[in-house]
Design goal:
- The chain is an alpha/beta fold and 239 residues long.
- The chain is 36% helix and 11% strand.
- The protein is built from six helices and six strands.
- A four-stranded parallel beta sheet has the order 2-1-3-4, with helices on both faces. A two-stranded antiparallel ribbon has the order 5-6.
- Strand 3, helix 3 and strand 4 form a beta-alpha-beta unit.
- Helix 1 packs across helix 4 and helix 2 packs across helix 3.
- The longest helix has 21 residues.
- The mean pLDDT is 94.
- The chain binds zinc ion (ZN).
- Zinc ion binds next to helix 1.
């Protein structure tokens, strides 16, 4: 049992004034080799790791598994609630949590949720709520179901990875495919749904990537500043 897991707590154990971390992912195609809930699994692992690194008591809420995934809709299995509904879900969840929690931070592992997060959190901050979001980011992140996500999943949930089915997808830079991707969806630029190349992914690379994401997100929660889109950013060190 994870002692930070809000879902497993009984109400008298949840003290008023806590920090709540909400992992947010997606249920969408991740190539022929990764499970549909890949983003949710990664967000959960980063949020749980960050909660354990923080000095102050924090709770990890149940993962918000459904996200905004319209660009993947032509692949079976994709379950998207779309941007406007996701905005409403985030707004109502935070208003509810904030009746007992001091602060709410979303940990996001899916780029398609950024528009909803930015809009909802901007609105909530205007309402006076202490809320922000942080991205599960890494410098060498390839776009979708490629080397980075496959390595992370091999480490976090290796038995869910169909390693023998991992094959290269479209490896072009985002700037080269973004127009078609936005207009026609992922299928128009990648028949297998992969943007990147999972060949050579390893659990060892996944372990080091997860560690750096946890360190990054816990530092952002502890000392980051809220940027214009409600996103936590590193505080710039005065020179
Ligand atoms: Zn993903």
């Amino acid at each position: 049992v994870n002692d930070c897991a809000l879902a497993q707590a009984a109400w008298p154990e949840v003290s008023v004034g806590s920090l709540v971390i909400v992992p947010i992912g997606s249920v969408e195609q991740h190539g022929p080799h990764l499970p549909l809930d890949t983003d949710a699994v990664i967000a959960r692992a980063v949020a749980s790791g960050a909660a354990q690194e923080l000095e102050s008591q924090s709770w990890v809420a149940p993962t918000l598994v459904y996200g905004s995934s319209g660009e993947h809709q032509s692949f079976p299995g994709t379950c998207s609630i779309g941007t406007p509904v996701l905005v409403d879900v985030i707004v109502e969840l935070v208003r509810s949590m904030r009746t007992w929690a001091d602060r709410v931070v979303f940990v996001n592992a899916h780029g398609g949720n950024v528009e909803s997060l930015s809009s909802a959190i901007t609105q909530l901050r205007e309402e006076g709520h202490d809320v922000a979001w942080a991205a599960c980011a890494t410098e060498d992140f390839d776009l979708h179901a490629g080397y980075t996500e496959t390595s992370l999943m091999l480490h976090i949930a290796g038995d869910t990875v169909r390693t023998e089915l991992a094959e290269p997808g479209n490896t072009a830079a985002l700037s080269e495919i973004i127009e078609t991707l936005v207009r026609e969806g992922v299928r128009a630029v990648s028949a297998n749904g992969i943007l990147g190349d999972p060949t050579g992914a390893s659990a060892e690379k996944g372990r080091s990537t997860l560690e750096s994401m946890i360190a990054d997100v816990s530092a952002l929660i502890a000392t980051g500043v809220v940027g214009p889109l409600g996103r936590l950013e590193r505080a710039t060190v005065p020179s």
